[in-house]
Amino acid sequence: MTGRVDITARAAETLGRLAAVHGPVVLHLSGGCCDGSSPMCLTAAELPPGPGDTQLGEVAGVPVYIDAEQDRRWGHPALVIDVLPGAATSLSLEGADDLHLVTAPRSARRRRGV
Q1: In the β-sheet with 79-85, what is the strand arrangement from edge to edge?
Q2: Architecture per CATH, 2-109
């Protein structure tokens, strides 16, 4: 974990597999269309960070960005990224594997014992 983001082992394995197939990838929480607050995994070439993005950190060699306004509204959270079965309604790469990335506050992870 670096910065304000952590990752579960199963999500790290998923990101590693996606990077092996697609090349460098990034995660972004946009707060926009589709699943909104769900992290989207896209190739680094498809999603370069913009001037309104804040880097939360890096997990499993993958940079994680959040829309700066969303970061402010959420109170600058520390997050954990996980992966669950079932494709999301976004364009995120893991959807092709019938998976979707999710986030939870880091404090919730401690409560669940993950």
Answers
A1: 40-43, 25-29, 62-67, 53-59, 2-3, 5-7, 79-85, 99-105
A2: Sandwich (2.60)
* Both tokens assigned to 2: 């670096």
Chain-centroid distance, C-alpha 21:
18
pLDDT in tens, the chain (114 residues): 458 999 999 999 999 999 999 999 999 987 665 555 689 999 999 888 889 999 999 999 999 999 999 899 889 999 999 999 998 777 889 988 999 999 888 775 444 444
Question: What count of residues does the chain have?
Answer: 114
Q: State the burial class of residue 8 (Cβ atoms within 10 Å of its Cβ: 0-12, 13-18, 19+).
A: middle
Q: Where do the domains of the chain lie?
A: 2-109
φ, ψ of residue 86 to 5 degrees: the values are: 100, 125
Q: What is the pTM for the complete model shown?
A: 0.85
